[in-house]
């Protein structure tokens, strides 16, 4: 048995080694990102299940877990993105109006149950923001206007 004679130059072998190395590194990075995404997905599902249980305990019909994960993710999404800053509070107040436009827009006395869902979301996803937001909501004028 004879060994074939090497007829590639060292430069040609170097390109093979570099290409293989780049592919290995790219696959390793892809694996790391895929693992981290799976971990975040698991955490998002756990939090969505916790929110579903809290909503059901409060007597509300909870949306599908996949919908909650899609909207809130694992960090609460827009609900927990600076809920106690002036712009977030102004946006909230702009939703508590009579629905008119322009000079016809008037604030309303909202039902006392309007904020329960948001408070439950904050309890699960961003409990560090909850106390200040509860204090803000308690200062708003609400009443039992929609009935049970």
SSE inventory with pairings:
Layout: H1 10-57, H2 65-72, H3 86-95, E1 110-111, H4 116-125, H5 127-139, E2 142-143
Parallel strand pairs: 1-2
Helix pairs in contact: 1-2, 1-4, 4-5
Multimeric state: single chain
- How many distinct beta strands? 2
Average pLDDT rating:
87
Count the domains: 1
Q: What spatial form do the alpha-carbon principal axes imply? A: elongated
Query: In whole angstroms, how far apart are the ends?
Result: 91 Å
Run of helices and strands? HHHEHHE
Count of alpha and pi helical runs: 5
Q: Enumerate the strands of the largest sheet in spatial order, edge to edge or round the barrel.
A: 1-2
Q: State the share of residues found in helices, binned by percent.
A: 55-70%
Beta-strand percentage range: under 5%
Note the main sheet: 2 strands, parallel
Low-confidence stretches: none
Radius of gyration, in Å, reads: 27 Å
User: What structural class results from the helix and strand content?
Assistant: mainly alpha
């Amino acid at each position: 048995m004879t060994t074939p004679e090497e007829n590639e130059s060292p430069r040609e072998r170097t390109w093979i080694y570099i290409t293989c190395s780049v592919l290995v590194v790219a696959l390793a990075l892809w694996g790391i990102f895929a693992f981290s995404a799976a971990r975040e997905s698991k955490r998002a599902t756990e939090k969505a299940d916790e929110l579903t249980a809290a909503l059901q305990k409060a007597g509300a019909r909870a949306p599908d877990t996949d919908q909650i994960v899609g909207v809130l993710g694992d960090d609460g999404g827009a609900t927990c993105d600076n809920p106690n800053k002036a712009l977030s509070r102004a946006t909230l107040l702009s939703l508590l109006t009579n629905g008119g436009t322009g000079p016809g827009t008037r604030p309303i006395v909202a039902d006392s149950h309007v904020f329960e869902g948001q408070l439950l979301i904050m309890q699960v996803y961003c409990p560090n923001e909850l106390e200040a937001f509860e204090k803000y909501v308690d200062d708003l004028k609400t009443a039992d206007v929609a009935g049970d």
